[in-house]
Each structure stands twice: as structure tokens, then as C-alpha cells.
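New here. Your pick:
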Amino acid sequence: MWRTLIREWLLFETLFFQLSRSSFVTSRRTLTTHNINDVDLLYADVPKPCKTKSERKPYPTPMKILIRRAKEQRESRKAEPCKMLEHAPENGLLVPELVGVAHQVYRARDSLLHGLSKLVNVAIPVKRCRFCSEVHIGHVGHEIRTCTGPKSGFRSATHVWRRGGIADVVRFPHCYHLDDRVGKPRVIHKERFTVQKLPAIVELCVQAGLDLEDYPTRRRTKPVYCVEGRIVDLESGTEVESQSYAHYSLSQSRDTDEQLMCLSEVSAKTLDSWFEMRTGAMKIMEKYSVQTCGYCPEVQVGPKGHKVKACRGAKHQSRAGMHAWQEATIDDLIRPNYVWHVKDPHASSPLDNSLKRYYGKAPAIVELCVQAGASVPDEYRSMTRIDVVSPCRDEVDLVA
């Protein structure tokens, strides 16, 4: 009898444990899903860099999709060895709806640099570390110990600040200029000193339809052919495509009213130019491909990367100095230099190392414009952590 009662009790206890566990997991999944849908956009943090220098950049497009695309292209090439390319810009023609966007992006970059020259040289000082790439926006450099330069161990990883400039606020990597992005899409190693270089964002605008006198490029009137994977231009002429778009004057004189603008208006206009440039560049990159090295910051605008043996990233010996090209993102084309956010620019005390977990970060251009009077954009409110109240230095030990 006792054995029967014990057996029934153990069976009941097992069933009760399984039911309670399943209900707990279900409620936990519901709570997790509810929280993700509510706050995944509110707590976007600064993108984390690679853990080690030997780690490759993540692929924007998953590898399975890239392999499937390559197989489809190989099969279509076997089925039709010679065919005329139909879609622009792979066929050598321009995408008509992106020509105006290219001019818009170029004007936004020009306006951005003009606004930065006013803010950096007149209003807000920019500081950079003497031994590493750390940048700080403000009158007083921070005391956060994150220096990784030479002999940083002797300084307890503290930074040594000096005056910076516009190049420290926003970084535009350079690339080789392609006279013909379809007929000759690659620059070989012997041409590394003869081919012109220019900012990659300008090269993207040139390939999308912007005409600059210093950087001529070929404009076709008829599409090219693809013969067994190679581009063949069967048209004998070298005609230049006639532009039916209005010419944008890029060297317009600044209005006299701009000199009377207050500092907050200049910062707001500069910030708008930053977002306009990034939005337009992302729209162009959907059609015009941009390549970047997976181990170093090299960038090349075009269907393929160049063949210059100048990579100094991880495992470059196994590649004979060649770059490991992959699809680039907008942050590879326009590099946002993240800096620590200063809530009170007029405070005399610098940012403390013991309180660094309470400080937020933002791109240097956003931090510069915010300190000059512009409002914090919604995209970077979580990164700057403006809703976090940092304790005083003598209250750090009292906070959990």
C-alpha cells in the first residue's frame, strides 16, 4: 500500500513539474517577444568592433545567398554564353533616376565640409590623441583610459591630447578613379602611381552621373555584351552619352545671409547635410556596388576591387598583399568616428574614467553639432544615453 501511494505521489509531482515548466517557458517567450518588439529600437548601442585584428569584417549579405547567386550566374552563363546586358549600370549605362541623387550627395558633402570649417575653426575645438586615433569634442579632453598607442602602459592608457581638425571629425577614404567602370573595372599593381585617387564618396557620385573636369569618365550610349563572363564592347564609336539633366553649379557663391546665421542654425544645417549625404549614398549603393577589404579599411568603388598589392591586414602574406574584397556598407564609405558624448559642454571637469559606463557615444559630427546647439537626432538618442543620470565621483561606490 505504501509503495502504491509513493508511486502515485512521484507521478503527480513529475506531471506538476512538467506543466509548471511549460507554462513558465511560454510566458517567458511571450514576455521576451513583447520586450523585443517594444525596445529593440530604443536601445541601439554603438557597433562593436572586431574582437581581434585577425577577425574578418562581417558580411552584409549572408554567405549562403552569395553562393546561390554565384551558382545562378554560372548556370546562366553556360546556358547563354553571349548575351547583351540589359540592366544598368552593369551594361555600362547610367541609372537615370540616380543622376540627380548623385548631384545631391555631392552638394551635401560640399555643404557639410563648409559647415564643419565654421564649427571646428571658430566655435567648438576638436582634440585628438597624440599616440592613437581617439578623438574628443570639447574644450577639455576626457580622462578615460582607452589609449592603445605606443608605450600606453607607462601612461596607464591615458591620452595625450593635441589640436585636431576636420579630418578627425569625418573621414572619407580615398579610392582609385575608374575611367571606364565596365570596360576596365580593375586597377593593376603597376598602375598604382599613375591612376588618380579621390574620395570614395565623390567617385561614387561620378560613376552615378556626376561630371567633373578633373575626373573624366566614359559615358556609353548603347549597352555592352557579356561573352563567357567577359565584357565586350561591340560598338566601334567612343561616343559620350548626352546628358539631358540640368547642370548643377557646385561652385555657387555663398549667400551673404549665411554669414549672419547663428551658431545653432549652422550646426542644424550641417547635421542635415550629414543625413542627406548618407541617405543619398545608401540609395546609390543599392545599384552601384562598392567593395571593401575584409581585413583593412581599403575601399574601391566599382563592380570589382583593384589588384594593387598594398594590404597590411591580417593574413596578407597568404594573399601576396592582395585585398580580401567583399561588399561594403555605408560605414565603410563614410566612416563615423565615434566619440564620448559630453552632456554639459561648459563643465570644467573632464569625463571621469570610473564613470565611463554611464557615458554614451555618438559620431563625431553629431557630437560636434549637438554641442554647437543642434538637437540630438532620434537615431542617436540611445547611443548618447541622455536619459542616464551619472553619479558624482564620490558616489560611485554606492551605485550597484
In short: The chain has nine helices and 15 strands. The first helix runs from residue 2 to 39. Residues 15-41, 237-253 have pLDDT under 50 and may be disordered. The radius of gyration is 27 Å.
